[in-house]
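thoughts on these tokens:
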Amino acid sequence: MNGVSKSRLRSEQSEPARPEESNQTAMEAEINEEMSFLKEPCLSSGTSLYDHLFEVVHFALANRASSAMIAFEETSRMLQERRHFCSNARTRSANNANSDTFHFALKVCQSLKHNDEGVRSLDMSEEDACGDGGDILDVLQVTARCGVAVPQDEAFAVALAIKDLASNRALTRIRFWGKVLARRRDYVLAEAELTDDELDRRVDIRGPAEQAELEDPLNRKHEAASRRVASPRT
């Protein structure tokens, strides 16, 4: 009985939560939720509104323009253009881009549809076609979070092109390098290594000087292969 009365006394003496503390906790939770929303990366650009605003404000404070409002708008547009690796004059129509990407993906899918062994798998999560290169879509998603973005539909087209390279060429360990913007078409670069069978075949058909050059470790391990990815005309 003594123990029960002591526990009741302790519970009565314990102070209730202060309204200020509960309000502060609720405010912190709300702020954290809003910050999480602002930091969500955009699928098309790979950056978040929080990072974009931070860059714009930092640039405006560093340059101290006469009109902060005009500087904010111009800086925001400039950073968006720089982030997408093209100016407003080169910005493509979304409908045309999606249409061209669809036709390219359809063509690659048809080329991958059948072979002597049967139906090929188009599962991008498999590592058999790209060696130990892993899932190119996951890699592009990681680079998008770092601010180097490739549109999602174009990333899928790049993955299909690398799958096509690994399936139809004597290449292995294919790695995506980046994108080069040209006047008429854009180019996607990939590095690859020749398979051992292909190296042996080339050694057999080449002369002594070419064999020595091919057997050089740098040439054996770093023979680049690039494949043009059909992009819409500018």
